[in-house]
Amino acid sequence: MLRLYNTLSKTVEVFKPLNPPQVKIYFCGPTVYDHMHVGHARAYVSADVLKRYLMFKGYDVLFVQNITDIDDKIIKKANDEGVSWDTIVSRYIEDYYDMLNKLNIKVHIHPRVTTHINEIISFIEELISKGYAYVAPSGSVYFNVDNYPYYGELSGKLDRSEWGQEEEFLSEKRKPYDFALWKSAKPGEPYWESPWGKGRPGWHIECSVMSSKYLGAQIDIHGGGQDLIFPHHENEKVQSEAKFGTRPWVNYWFHVGYLTIRKEKMSKSLGNVVFFKDIVKGIRPEVLRLWILSAHYRTPLEFSEEGLDIANKMYSRLVSAVNTLKRLLLEVEPINYLTDEDIKILRNISLLREHFHNAMDDDLNTPKAVSVVYELTTMVFRDLEPKPNYASVLKAFTLMKEFNEVLGILDQHIYSGPTDELINKLIDLLVKVRQRHRELKDYETSDWIRNELMKLGVKLMDFKDKSRWVIEL
Ligand SMILES: [Zn+2]
């Protein structure tokens, strides 16, 4: 059974869906006013692994990740560049989709705020009619926090002095901690018509509206980075509970820890971001994904060259193990007899499956799960490669595929077709030819083969008695 940490209860709980086998997940996506950075990558990869693991366990998952395409930061960037807000938005949505694609993240629905303005207006109207919101003289609408009794419950901020919101609207709000649902347009700002005049939605309302539109009035899991707990998720929670009368509105709150650089949170406001587009010039997206999974999603993850190096070596090892298994599957004869040793290996492979699932069930302990995958590669090189038997090789390959369904880092190698098989064999052949030259002490030719392979993106790694290769395109 999967156990998940719930920010609301601050404990690890057994996961029980509202309507099994369905699981509805809403994860807060980006505000598209700049390039995606490694912190975004961490949050979205963590949510993706949660989604993948639930799907793997047989749940019918619907996963929604929104795009905030109108916001103060977008308007500011557009003004700074002298272009329209939607020029900025198109540019960075492209960047966001590109990152998801490269990181092998698949989202069912990417709702955008500006295509849901009517739904947002209706939602706010209902909050006003129920007495939870009020219209200020400017035409802005605010949530009346004092009228809802459970404010602060999610973040644990129970004292009014801790309820800081945007300072900008202090003069017209009834209480400093009331937050904007609708912001009246200032001159020159983009706007939409509403019953309260020209304006645009506040930030928090969009997630309540778009999640309920696609997932209903109650959600199984709602997530985001830890920095979203307050005020964003606190505000989303009260306005949704107030409108729908459902408590809890969200059953499990899932929050991903900070990505740090020199022990500080990586964020635009601190100016210490490493952009995704830049990092993937030097390393494969799969390696970044693996590195992200090498830490538990709730702990801080420190960005370091050393960490990425370790992930890179691990990735090469995984690729090499997959290629070895695929080769063995073709080479090894069907079997009619297993030795006691073979049976032991077969059992040990099954045990790894159990360990992997135990780790993932334990609040998605991916570092532990990755170490189980490492153990499988050890078995491939130590037990199967020198003395392969078909049953164990097939079992190990199937298990590697299962692990990959959850971790999502080896698709390219696992799902390659027959031509790729031939290519693998040809590379193996070249590696053997090079080995012959080395044995004959013809180092000039052996180095030449190595360099030519390198130019094609095939990297050789020499070990004591053999060479392994990995494709690094
Ligand atoms: Zn949100």
Can you walk through the features of this model?
There is one protein chain. The strands form five sheets. A four-stranded parallel sheet has the order 4-3-9-10, with helices on both faces. Helix content is 49%, strand content 14%. The protein is an alpha/beta fold and 473 residues long. It has two domains: 3-302, HUPs (Rossmann fold); 306-471, Four Helix Bundle (Hemerythrin (Met), subunit A), CATH 1.20.120. It starts with a strand and ends with a strand. The model has no long low-confidence stretch (mean pLDDT 95). Zinc ion (ZN) binds next to helix 6.
Set down the secondary structure blueprint:
Elements: E1 3-6, E2 11-14, E3 22-27, H1 38-56, E4 60-65, H2 72-81, H3 85-102, H4 117-129, E5 133-135, E6 141-143, E7 179-184, E8 199-201, H5 203-215, E9 219-225, H6 229-244, E10 250-256, E11 259-261, E12 264-265, H7 276-282, H8 285-293, E13 301-302, H9 305-331, H10 340-361, H11 366-384, H12 390-407, H13 411-414, H14 418-439, H15 443-455, E14 458-462, E15 467-471
Parallel strand pairs: 3-4, 3-9, 9-10, 11-13
Antiparallel strand pairs: 1-2, 5-6, 6-7, 7-8, 11-12, 14-15
Helix pairs in contact: 1-12, 2-3, 4-5, 5-6, 8-9, 9-11, 9-12, 10-11, 10-12, 11-12, 14-15
Zinc ion (ZN) is lined by residues 28, 207, 232, 236.
